[in-house]
Structures are given as structure tokens and as C-alpha cells.
Amino acid sequence: MKAAYTSVRVRPGVVLVGLLALALNLRTALAGYPPLIDAVRADLGFSAGAAGFVQTGAVLMMAAGSLAGPAAARRGGPERALVGAVGLVALGSLVRGVPAAVPLVTGSLLAGFGIGVAGVLLTGVVKEHLADRAGAVTGGYVVAMMIPSTVASAVAVPLAAAVGGWSLALAVWAVPAVLALAAWVPVARRVERPAPTERARLPWRDRFARLAATHQSAASLLVYGWMTWLAPYLTSRGWSPRDAGMVLAVWAAAQVPGALAIPALAERTGRWRFWSGVALASTAAGTIGLLLAPLAPVVGPWPWAVLVGLGSGAGFPLGLAVVAWRTPDAAASAATSGMALGVGYTVAGIGPFLMGLLIDLTAGYAAAIGVLVVAAAVQASAIIRIGDAPRAG
Residue 321 pLDDT > 60, yes or no? Predict the structure, then answer.
């Protein structure tokens, strides 16, 4: 049931600016950590498994936030709930400014939960205020999520050197969160509290919903697995932390055209399975290339990082798009998406921790990257079973 708003009209342009400002913060706190893992391990004495657990905990809290987001919106409306969610991102980033294990873990958990809640709420805001341009706005905030993560990966190491350590470099990401709140709070104040709505049930017994969750789990694991371990993997092969961070930044940048172009082609042609297969083939080729020839002569890891970025950047929005196309109404779409995101982030959260344990146990990265190869195979199975989605309308 849709919330009943009796709010003063907020101009779409104001909502759009605030929404994009919020979206800028939905990956930076996580993307700024992996290039600093080696510095964190050296400073705090972490094993690879412990360092991976920091990212795992943050992503698991994203899963919890995704499941809690609809309840938060039900109580006070998505606009007000977004204030609290992004406030948690800012607080978590500040807490990580203390160079110790407990603040690092605590701050990561807070930021992850806030990101998870906000990610779910943004969809409701778009439907409520910008429904007539939902496609363009969604593409805009996906790009707004991805570009700052590219910057965060690229500048993490030099930023740590400039500000005096890895902890302060992580705390810097509280600044854009606070600025986003300054842009969004006026919007939230102008929207009155909605009437109570029925609590949506997650469709655990629905076959399509389970397939969508499987697809998002594999797609998310491929993103967060590489986000966490690509830079440390390359440093283990002799690359400097700065150069490894730049490769990670290129990987993140390659996600932007993948996220914008491939889902649009799938929608235009009505061939979701074909274009999902193209995206997954790109991801799988890059993953196998990084496993077998990470430092290929002349080209190095760059083309593999681009292939993984293009494919994995498309995988996540393709999973959300097929939910929109195959569900009968907005309520069913929201429930299925919430389930898919919650399960997907849970699996993606466990992945980096499992990969870290395998790195410790095997004293290498082959088994850990093998986890990502398995994830690609699982995603392929889900794509085949979901089949081609009909175009909306």
C-alpha cells in the first residue's frame, strides 16, 4: 500500500540535487578501505582474514539495512529516514578516524548499515517525486554512486600520506556525507509524515524471487570480492600500493559505462538474458585473466580490470531491472528487490571474509579468486533459469 502524502510540493529539481548528493555517499566509505588494507594490517597487526572481516561486516550491515529500510520508510517516510541513514554514514566515517581496531570495525558497521538503508529508500523517493523521469534519474544516481568510489580508490593511498595516516583518510569521507545532509534536510522538512502502511512480506516462497536473489548474490559477490582484494592481490605480485589503487580505480570507472549502456540495451531490445550473458562473459574473462596472467607482458592487469568492471557494473542494475519487468506491481517489485538486495549483500559480505581466510590458509590468492569464478558460474545458472524478461508496458 502506498503512503498517503499531504506534503507541500517540493520542486523536482530540488529533490534531484539532494538525491544525487546522497547517492555520492553510497560507496565511498567502502571503496576507500581496500587500498589501505596493507597499511591497516601493518599498523594493527591484522591477518588477511581479519582485514577482510572489516569489509565483510560492513557489507553484512548493508544487508541488514536493506531489510530494515522499508520499515524505516513506513514509520517516517523515506525522506526523513534518509537523513538518519546518511547521518550514520557520516558518523561511521568519523569513528574510523581513530586508528584502532574497535573504532575501525564499529565505524565500518555503522556506515554499512546506513548505506544499506539509504540504498533501499532512494528508490521510493524516485517513485514518489520523480516518477515521470525515473529511468534517467536512476541512471544518474547509479553514476553518482560509482564515480566517487572510483575517486576514493584512486586517492586512498596518497590521501593517507597527505593527512597523516589511513584512519584520517577514512574519516575524510564524513565530509561529503555532511554536505549531502545539508542539501537533503530542507527537502525532508517539507514532506509531511505519511499515513501508516501495511508491512510488506518478503516473497521467500516465490521461485522468481529466489532466482533474483541468487543472481544478485553472485553479482554482488563479484563486485565486493574484487573491491576488497584486487589491490592487495596486485601488491602481492609486486605492484606498489599506489599503482594497485589506480588499477582498482580503473576497475571502478569501467563499471559506469557498463551500468548505463548494457541495461539500456537489454530494455530496448527486450533481451535481458542475452545482454546479461554478455556482461557476465566480460566479468568471467577478466576474472580468469587476473587469475592466470595478472601481469601479462605489455598490458599488465589493466585490460582484465576493465573487463571485470564493465561486466560487474552491469550485473547489479540488470538484476534490479529484471525484477521491475517481471513483477506485477510496485509493491511486489519493492518486496522482491528488498529480498534480493538483503540476500545479495549477505552473500557479498561473507565473500571477502572467506577470501581472506583462504588467503591466510593457502598463503596465496588462487583459491580466493576461485571463489569469484564459482560466483560467476552461479550467476550464469540464474541468468539461464530467469530467461528473457518482457519489456515493461
Answer: yes
